[in-house]
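Hi support team,

I submitted a single chain yesterday and got back a structure, but I'm not sure I'm reading the token output correctly. Could someone confirm the output below corresponds to the sequence I sent? I've pasted both exactly as they appear in my results page.

Thanks,
R.
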Amino acid sequence: PSTIIAYGEVVARRSADVRAIVGGPILRVSDHFANGAPVAAGEILIELDPFEYERRVEETAAAVREAEARLQENRETSRHQADLVTLAEERRDLTQTEYERQVDLAEQNVSARRTLEAAQSRLAAAEAELTQRRQQATASAAKIAQQEAVLERLRAAEARSRRALSDTQIRAAFDGYLAQVSGDLGQQVKAGERIARLIDTAVLEVRFFIPERQLARLVEIADQGIGAICVVSWRTEAGVRTYSARVTRIEGEIQSNRAGVNVYARISDADLDQDPIRPGAFVEVELFEETHVRTFRVPSEALHPGPSLLVAKDGIAVSRTVTVVARAGNTVLLRGDLLPGEAVIVTRSGELHPGDAIAIVADETLRGQ
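Hi R., thanks for writing in. Yes, this is the structure output for that exact sequence:
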């Protein structure tokens, strides 16, 4: 089979900086907090002194309780103001009725004018009281809305303080190995400071460079290069270790300054609990064209839905069911129940269907494997 030789380095599919979200002195350090140590997702790596953060939680929680009590007080005041409005409305209605009665009596010359004036004065006082009570009720409702906003802000502050307290425990985000570890008991850590790098070694890849002139060959080896078989060789003083890999992705743009692209292949048989290979290792990559037995290659346009091919038999187009094994450029690699010497129709003239009469005007031997 055809091969391509390239060189590259082992990389982790995923890695992340372990950073302190909040600052403070280091109070405890995990036994696993060391370069090369394996850690599990959620494991506490470092604990910062929580004293100041616990005090902030207590302060914000107390402020929330105080605001809740004040809100309750405002609501009670508002209910009382609403009751006073109701009483004022009742008094206004009574004085309104009395005033109207005095007007009727005055028109009949039954009541003295000063009695009417007194009723009118009482009505004006009742209306003034009602207006005042309504204003007070409106002010009470506004105080409730204001206090609710204050309470919401204080609850948010309490949530932030509790989050900051939990952030004093620095945990591993996923399973992996630690590298570039820094930090020890008593050391002052700043918010945002990196204390380690976490490498997910469950999936290791090889990143290697393919020149532009070899990119087309890589695409021919497999469907757009994806899935191409690789043998990765890592040379050490103890000897050469080899691993199996398959191409998983190719960068989308050719690097103009290097005239090529980076290719990534996933290593499938590296057990990091037993194997010393790590990200950063320099390796040789050999890509092989996969050999397919009992297959044949035809132009892509010869493939019909199903998938199927049309073959010529006794001047008639006959359908043959096939399986697509791989694609390479404008050709497709197939496997199916074709008989030796059968002529596959690889050119189309209009809509050709099984059973149609045909005439062979060109014959080309198919490439089989």
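A quick pointer for reading it: The first strand starts at residue 3 and ends at 19. Let us know if anything else looks off.

Best,
Support desk
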